[in-house]
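Hello Y.,

Per our agreement to keep a running log of every chain we model this quarter, I'm adding this entry. I've kept the format consistent with earlier entries: sequence first, then predicted structure.
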Amino acid sequence: MRTQSTLMQLRANPMEWRRRGLTPPDALQAMVEERLAQPGHSPIVGDPSYQDFFRG
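Predicted structure for the entry above:
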């Protein structure tokens, strides 16, 4: 069984996220900020929703 410190180290490593087919939290945050900075997006109050990312 892994110790708590080992799990924290794995979670902090972006390669461990990608190895499991996931996007690391920092990369995901950068994508959200980039999308919200594009023209046509009004400032978000609260958490972003799906509507903020899918345009028709």
